[in-house]
Design a protein that fits this description.
Layout (H helix, E strand, L loop, with lengths): L2 H13 L3 H4 L3 E9 L4 E4 L1 H10 L7 E10 L2 E9 L4 E11 L2 E8 L18 H4 L7 H10 L4 E2 L4 E12 L4 E9 L7 H11 L5 E7 L5 E2 L3 H10 L7 E5 L2 E4 H4 L4 H5 L1
Parallel strand pairs: 1-6, 10-12
Antiparallel strand pairs: 1-2, 3-4, 4-5, 5-6, 7-8, 8-9, 8-10, 10-11, 12-13
Length: about 260
C-alpha cells in the first residue's frame, strides 16, 4: 500500500470509533506528539486507550478535508466532532513499512479576526459583526473594573459582583450587584442588561460575571432566564462559566419552557 492508502485506511478505521482497530495501522513503536500540550503518546495501545477514554457526548466523526502526500510523509486536515465539541486536527504522518510510525498533531483554535487587519482582508458575512467584537479577556477586564464591594446602608450593599455584556452592535455594558434586606436587590447581569436596554439594545452576544476576587462565575438561573427573554437570539449567546470554558445560553437552559411552548 502507498503511504496515502495507509493514512486513508487509518482515518476510515477512526470513523468506526474502534480505536484499537485504528491502532492496527500504527507501528509497534509508534509515537504521537501534541506540541501544544507537550504530550507524547508512545505505542499503539496508549493511542487506542486515550482516544477510547476521551470524554465525548456522542460518537466521534472524522471528515478528511484535505490530504497532501510527498514520499513517506502525509499531511491531513481533518474536522472532528462528537456532535457537541468541534475541532480541527492538522496531522503530519510518517509512514514506514506500511504502517504509521510517527504523528505530529496540531489542534488550532478559531479566533476572531483582529480589527487592524480589516483593510487588507475579506470576511464571510457571519464574521463581519464579530470582527469588531472583543474577546472574553476584554469582557472579563471590563467586568472586574466595576467591582467595588461596599456597604451602602445598614440594609444594603453593592459592588461585590461585576458583569459585562457584549451586544450584537459590538457595545459592552457593565453592571454590579445590589444586595438588600427583604430580597429586593438584583444581580450584576441585571444591572448590565438594564444599561443595555436603556441604550436601546437587547441582543447579547457574550456575557460574563466575576466575583469580588475577580474569578469568573456562572450566572444564576434567574439571570439566565431574564437574558433569554430580552431577545430571541440571546439563547445562542456565549456565556463564560469559568476560566477557559464558555457555553451557549441554550446549554444553561436545557429544557427551556419557551421552546416547549413553541
Amino acid at each position: 500500500m502507498t503511504p496515502r492508502e495507509v493514512v486513508e485506511s487509518f482515518w476510515q478505521a477512526m470513523r468506526t470509533n474502534d480505536f484499537f482497530a485504528a491502532g492496527r495501522w500504527l507501528a509497534e513503536d509508534f509515537t504521537c506528539h501534541w506540541p501544544q500540550s507537550s504530550e507524547l503518546i508512545c505505542g499503539r495501545v496508549n493511542f487506542a486507550e486515550i482516544n477510547t477514554r476521551y470524554p465525548a457526548k456522542g460518537a466521534w466523526q472524522f471528515d478528511v478535508v484535505c490530504m497532501v502526500c510527498e514520499g513517506n510523509n502525509v499531511v491531513t486536515d481533518v474536522l472532528v466532532t462528537d456532535g457537541d465539541i468541534r475541532g480541527r486536527a492538522i496531522t503530519f504522518h510518517v509512514v514506514e513499512d506500511g504502517l504509521i510510525s510517527r504523528q505530529t498533531e496540531f489542534w488550532p483554535d478559531d479566533f476572531a479576526p483582529p480589527a487592524w487587519r480589516r483593510p487588507w482582508v475579506k470576511l464571510p458575512a457571519s464574521w463581519e459583526a464579530a470582527a469588531q467584537i472583543p474577546d472574553f479577556s476584554e469582557l472579563c477586564a471590563r467586568a472586574r473594573s466595576v467591582i467595588n464591594p461596599r456597604r451602602l446602608t445598614e440594609y444594603a450593599e453593592a459592588g461585590g459582583v461585576g458583569a459585562a455584556l457584549l451586544t450584537g452592535d459590538g457595545n459592552v455594558y457593565t453592571g454590579v450587584c445590589i444586595d438588600t434586606a427583604s430580597s429586593m436587590g438584583f444581580c450584576a447581569e441585571h444591572a448590565a442588561a438594564a444599561a443595555m436596554i436603556t441604550a436601546g439594545e437587547s441582543r447579547v452576544v457574550r456575557m460574563v460575571a466575576v466575583d469580588w476576587n475577580g474569578e469568573v462565575m456562572p450566572p444564576c438561573g434567574r439571570c439566565r432566564e431574564m437574558i433569554s427573554q430580552l431577545h430571541t437570539d440571546n439563547i445562542q449567546a456565549e456565556v463564560l462559566i469559568r476560566a477557559g470554558c464558555a457555553v451557549s445560553l441554550a446549554e444553561l437552559l436545557p429544557h427551556d419552557w419557551k421552546t416547549a411552548r413553541g
